[in-house]
Amino acid sequence: MTNAFPESVQAASPPLRREGIEAIELGKVFPDSRVGKIVAAEGITFTCWHGEVFGLLGPNGAGKSTTLRMLATVLDPTAGTARVAGHDIREEPLEVRRSIGYLSSTTGLYGRLTARETLEYFGSLHGIEKKALRERVDELLRLFEIGSFADLRCEKLSTGMRQKVSIARAIVHDPPVLILDEPTLGLDILIARTMVRFIEDCRSRGKCIILSTHILSEVDRLCDRLAIIHRGRLRGTGTLQDLRLRTGAQYVEDIFVNLVGE
Amino acid sequence: MKTADEVLAVYGKEMRALARDRHTILYSLCLPLFLYPALVWGVIQVLTYLRALDQTIESRVILALPEDKGYQAGATLRASFEADQGLRVSAPKYAGAFLREDPVGPERVAREWIREGQAQAVVLVEASEPPATLRARVFHDGASEASRRARERVEKAFEKHRRERLAGAARSLGEAEAFLDTLHVEEEDVSTRQELAKYMASLILPLLMIVMTALGALYPALDSTVGEKERGTLETTLLSPIGRSSIVLGKYLAVVTFSFLSFFLNFLSMMLTLSHLKSQLKLEGFSIGIGSSLVIVAAAIVLAFFLGAIMMALGFLARTFKEGQSYVTPVYLFSVFPVIATSSPDIVLTPLLSVIPVVNISLLFREALQTRLDPVGVTLTFATSTFYALLALAAASRLLRQEAYRTGSGFGPRAALASLFGGGGKEP
What we know:
The complex is a heterodimer of chains A (262) and B (428). Chain A is an alpha/beta fold and 262 residues long. In chain A, 37% of the residues lie in helices and 26% in strands.
């Protein structure tokens, strides 16, 4: 099956401990008719390795989603740049998009397509050959236990079912880098658990995963390293242990408060 | 992945999604196919019924006759009026005097009688010299259908009475009626039934064709642009490794397909309706040749390309579906107004009108229906409409490459114009 994927994706599947994402002084300023401009992100610099989960922790409006959407080439940075799977987000956006699986609450599913059609559509946009795509879709349907509702339209699916389809959609092309923007937002405990297991599984398979969250227990359980982001700027980066040592605080909540200085 | 494959993948998805959407099916397919023929049929039935009803409705008329020297002539006139079964005549004594002697004038009294429902028309008859000659004034309310009907019936009764008097006078002289009626006017229509039918059809069909093509594009254009922004699915597609232009083109082709389908179904349906109801519509002999049909279909395709591109560009400009509707509705109306404005048969497809969008297609439709196509006008119409469609498509593509518009954080039409004519917007 792997042979049927575009060469660029195969070539982009790197060994462990290689940079999956490298953000360099990334910044984003939105024009605003009322106040002139809004600085959503400024001087964001970090590296995310393959085989690790890198967390972006911050309150609503801190700049997490803006940062992730810049990495996914949805937004154009106004300063700095980033390399994703070895490709510059400014210079090679198509290659970047070929290498990432992006999942967020803003990436909706086509309600009038069935789960199977959704996977086939996005697989075809990634250039996967028909036969290989059928096999890949069947594999994902099995993996996420979608089979029983694979031929139902997405608009008729429950939140949990939709989330499973969304995850399958994001990884239909088996990307080396996963960008997850608050992936458990609004999910019930059981579905959130499925998501957490999925992330752990991806890490064990050497994927580079960056996820944004403001759920502290998720940070504790999933993130190998994390960055605290507040008002568009990174306030601290490292493992949880590093941050504990640096701030002298034990709990993630205290670490966060200590670093943002509020 | 080749660009053509990318476009086809997006097109296939859009077609599938739109074909499963109730609004699109209703407005783009069902409405043109069923509603308009049903409306035409319904209108004919209602008119037939009203015509039949009209025969049974009496018009109440007050006839104010002269009391003195013209009395005899007035009595004959009254007999003519009473012979008309559609008129219920009342001729109260002194009505004429009452009307004539009103200080403000007979109009005021007549108006009051009509407003109060005493009559639907008031006829004031006065004698003049010689005594057998009558002069009549007919008062009616032009804003009332019943009053207008009464006036028409009174006019017919007068005409009948006039001919009877002429015939009587001629008889008394021992001559035929034509002896006194020295001026004969006869009208002759030199057009064939087919020409007349084509002319009648060309007055209404272009408007319907343009309305249907615009309506067919409207919902798919909004659904595939701002609708997707609202549902968050546009971002999902934008995360795919394909060019923005491929996305725009795939969506555009789906919008054009539905727009054209809408036109085609309406055209087909209207043709079937007309052939079925030719006699009721007085369109016997109406037919469209293959050449004209091909020109009409080709013009509809160009129109679908043009309207689809404009509506998609506006769809990308909008932040919400409602905003999209408010942008697109004027386009819909503006595509109808010029058609109405140029509906006069005297306006033809000149080189100048050939470069005005929508107007040119409307006139081309009309000339194709009348089988009087001018090659220069046809060529100019196709060339300019294609050019405008490409311009609008380029604008749509450029807007999707603008971050603010693809993410739904745009700042309205003014900023869009700056984006369109300013820098940025590189592929992909």
